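Translate structure to sequence.
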């Protein structure tokens, strides 16, 4: 996706080739899915340790055919793939986040089938910010497009990042709205990060790469494939605190995202419509199943316990000095601050965002913050 490169600050120092080779081997071992890979990592810690484990140790966790595949992968030549990856990463604004990377989005890491690798272009710090996903029909009505853009802009202006899938219709409108506010937007794509699909959204993809973030779990060069679109939906919901469905037919990919969100213990919101409109059927079904009916942006913000759209994002006075003192003259990320202070990461992220909007701290690349002194 050379056309979407963005002149962001220098990338984080790259992992050694040996480390990246291990992650590539694990991610692409035939017959070893994400759930199995997570089980292996929980037992052995790193890909290198997995591939260094003996057959008996592997058989305690996987089937014989999988153990054999892992043994074959240990000696596989990943040199060409590694060279191509290094070339891609050599351009500004491009990143590869492994599951153990401190920049890997913490909410996404919580899901059972979190990707081992995330290819990203743009502001990877957005992946750790509080977010709302907005999804809906590709063949949206004019009213649906307007709703998606309005909700996206207002939620972004309130400081929430907008996550969607770069599809035509509702997704594109939501991204466009997200770019209008401080929260910006994240596009989760179902191709390699060096591809643009659909081509009609090429200009939008370039804007997102410059001011937001484009992210994919699929290897570079992966073309559009029908089975990859439902698969990427778990990442859209996994990055967000809640999913807002704007318009959806009775059989819609957006309903897959909504149900994945419920499985991931995320909130689901739906905008109702006319009982005669086909694109309202999916939203009405979700509401019957327990999704929260929303009519205004403040309905969503209230459910998230986020400052309402008419209220400024003012830092909680009980946290200002505590967080500023904890940062001191150094730089720190939300995870480290939460651990240091014994607070929840989401709580710290919310307060850091308020401090940022109040110009008391500055956000740096890699999700780090530094204190601004008068």
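Result:
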């Amino acid at each position: 996706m050379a056309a979407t490169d963005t002149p962001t600050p220098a990338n984080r120092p790259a992992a050694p080739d040996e480390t990246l080779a291990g992650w590539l081997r694990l991610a692409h071992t035939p017959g070893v899915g994400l759930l199995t890979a997570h089980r292996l990592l929980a037992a052995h810690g790193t890909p290198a340790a997995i591939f260094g484990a003996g057959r008996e140790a592997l058989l305690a966790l996987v089937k014989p055919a999988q153990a054999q595949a892992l043994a074959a992968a240990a000696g596989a030549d990943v040199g060409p793939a590694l060279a191509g990856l290094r070339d891609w990463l050599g351009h500004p604004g491009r990143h590869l986040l492994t599951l153990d990377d401190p920049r890997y989005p913490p909410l996404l890491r919580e899901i059972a089938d979190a990707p081992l690798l995330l290819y990203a272009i743009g502001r990877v710090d957005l992946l750790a910010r509080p977010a709302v996903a907005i999804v809906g029909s590709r063949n949206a009505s004019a009213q649906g497009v307007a709703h998606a853009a309005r909700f996206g802009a207002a939620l972004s202006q309130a400081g929430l990042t907008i996550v969607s899938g770069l599809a035509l219709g509702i997704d594109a409108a939501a991204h466009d709205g997200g770019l209008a506010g401080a929260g910006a937007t994240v596009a989760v794509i179902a191709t390699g990060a060096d591809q643009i699909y659909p081509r009609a959204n090429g200009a939008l993809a370039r804007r997102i790469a410059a001011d937001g973030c484009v992210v994919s779990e699929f290897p570079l060069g992966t073309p559009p494939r029908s089975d990859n679109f439902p698969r990427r939906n778990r990442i859209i919901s996994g990055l967000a605190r809640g999913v807002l469905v704007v318009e959806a037919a009775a059989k819609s990919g957006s309903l897959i995202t909504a149900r994945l969100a419920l499985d991931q213990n995320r909130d689901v919101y739906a905008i109702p419509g006319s009982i005669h409109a086909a694109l309202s059927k999916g939203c009405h079904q979700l509401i019957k199943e327990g999704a929260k009916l929303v009519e205004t942006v403040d309905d969503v913000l209230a459910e998230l316990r986020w400052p309402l759209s008419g209220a400024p994002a003012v830092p909680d006075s009980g946290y200002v000095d505590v967080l500023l003192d904890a940062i001191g003259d150094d730089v720190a990320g939300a995870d480290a601050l939460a651990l240091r202070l014994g607070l929840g990461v989401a709580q710290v992220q919310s307060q850091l965002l308020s401090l940022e909007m109040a110009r008391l701290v500055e956000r740096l690349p890699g999700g780090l913050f530094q204190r601004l002194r008068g």
